Amino acid sequence: MQKSKVETKVLAEALTPRQIVEELDKYIIGQFEAKRSVAIALRNRARRQMLDADMQDEVAPKNIIMIGSTGVGKTEIARRLARLVEAPFIKVEASKYTEIGYVGRDVESMIRDLTELSVSRVKTEQTDTVEEEALERAEERLLNCLFPMPRNLKVKTPPRPPEELDLEEQIEEIELDELDFEEEFGFPFELETDEEDNKAIEEQRKRHEKTREKLRKRLRDGEFENRLVEINMKSRSTPFVEIFSPGGIEEMDINFKDMFNNILPSQTKKRRVPVSEARQILMQEEAEKLIDMDAVINEAIERVENSGIVFLDEIDKIAGRESRHGPDVSREGVQRDILPIIEGSTIATKYGAVSTHHILFIAAGAFHVSNPSDLIPELQGRFPIRVELKSLNQSDFKSILTEPKNALVKQYTALLQTEGIEATITDDAIDEIAALAFQVNESVEDIGARRLHTIMEKLFENLFFDAPDLEKDNVTIDAEYVTGELAEIVKDQDLSRYIL
To answer: Considering the entire predicted model, what is its pTM?
Structure first.
C-alpha cells in the first residue's frame, strides 16, 4: 500500500494499526503495548476525518501518558510515529515552562513552535515543486551577470493603447505627453532611428542571443562553477528588540520584527561569490517569489490542527501539589496553564489563530517520585490512555544492538569503513556488551538503552583514535576484546559512575 505524505481523508490510504506497529518495530525493540496504543490513536485520526463535519468536531483525540524510566523508548516511539505520517511534531519538556506571572517560557509557545515547524515544512515542500522554474530563473540571472546585454540592445516596451489603461494610468499618460522633454532634458521623448540602424541593432541582438545560448550550455555543463560573479541579494536583518509582555516574550518579539520590516525598506547588498553558491542563493530567492505564502500558511495551520503531535516529556516533574510557601513557581500552576491547551483552545500565532482541539498530546515521564494520580484531576481526565513501558533486560539490549535499521553495531562498523577498515563484531562480543550494559544499569543507575551508547563509545575509543594509522584492513572484536577494554571500568564502581 502506498503511504500518503500526510494523513488523508480517505481511510483506505491511511496506515492500519498493524502496519504502524510493524514500521515502529524496525526502529524500536519491544514495548508492544505502547506501540499498539499510539497506532490506534493515529488510526482514529484518519477515522475521524471520514465522519460528518458535525461528528468530527465531537470526536476528541485520545491523549496518551507513557510511564517508564529513561531510555526505554518513549521519545523514540513518538518521534518515529510523527515521521511515519510526516505530521507536524514537536518535543517539549514540561519542566521548562512557568506559570503565568513568572518570567520564562509560557505554555502557549509550544503551539507557536509547532506552527512554525509546520510552516517551514510546507514551505520546503512547495519549494520542491517550483524548483525547476526557480532554477531557470536563477540561470537567467546568472547569465545576466556573466554576459549582460548592452543597454542599446535592450528591447523597449511599446506603449499600451489608451483604451487598455485604467483611469489613473490614462491621466498619467496625459501628464507625460504634456511634458516638454526636449526643453527639460535636452532630447526628444522618442528618439528617431532610421531603418538601417534598426537592422544593425537587430543583428547585434541576434548575435548576443546566440552567444548567450552557448554560455548557457557551458553554464549547465559546470564550466563556470568556480568563477566569481557579483550578485545583488537581500540583506538579512537580525532582531534587535525584545519586549516582555503578558502575551509572551516570543510573540511580542515577532510582532516588533514584522513592524520594523514593514517600516524599513528591504535592503540589498552586493556579494562576489562563486557561480555554484550564487546559483543556490538566486534559486532560493526565486523560489520564494514563486511560492504563495498565504496558501502555505493555510496548509500548515490545517496540518497542525488535524495532524499535529505534541510530545510533552518530563510531565512527572510538574506532578504533585506544592507544600512550600513563598515566591516560587508552582508545579500545579503550570498544570493549570497547560490544561486549556490540551482541553482545546485557540492560540494566537504570527500566522493566525490555531485551534488545539484535535492536536494529539503524548505525555511521558518516569514517575519515580510522583504518580500519574498526583496530576490535577482535570489534567488526568485529558489523558485517558495510560501505558507502562517495561525496563530493558539483557535480551533487549542484544536485540537493540543488532536488529533495528539503525542498530548501533551497523553504525560503528560503518564509521570504521570510512577509514578503510572492515570491523567484524562476533556474537559473543554482542552478548558481552549487552551483559555489561545490563550490569551497569543495575548497579549504578538505570538509563535504559542510552547505556549502550556510552559502552560502545568507550569500547571503540582506541580503534577510532588509531584507525587512520592502522596497517591492517580487518579488525575482529570478540568477547575477549570487550572484556579487556571494559572489565576494569565495570568492576571499579566509582570509575564506572564517572565513565559509564
So the answer is: 0.73
